[in-house]
Amino acid sequence: MKRWTTVLAAALALAAAAQTNPTAAELWSWLLDQNFAERWRHVPGEPAGKHAGGPPHGAIQQIFANDVAFEALAQKRFPLPDGAVIVKENYDAQGRLYNLAVMRKVKGYNPEGGDWFWGYFTPEGGVLFEGKPALCVGCHAQKKASDWIFSGQE
Q: What's the whole-model pTM score?
């Protein structure tokens, strides 16, 4: 019995470590499994579908939220709960997708940055940067009161 308890404790410790140390590759794989562009909703307070954007996210953008993020944003409940994910597809002026910016809330990952893990991807899933990039954290810091989120603020 003691052996199984030890094994279970080790498995739980590994799961907790994986949760607080996410990687962009894991996030991309998960996003593909989610089929987010077909199954997720648009962020409340943002236009549905592609709409005008701006630097640094492109002339055109489209923003998606998983159910966890959508429900919290719809109720303006901040901070968003663990597991909230927002995906911003970034398009050039000709409407070509050139990258995706992703925010994933991971409890304990980065308390100084709202516990957000950022991933910035090519359309094929190549990782441009990940984790706590200064560009993302620095810009989003001005929105600490709304949990580092610009979207859905009406």
A: 0.85
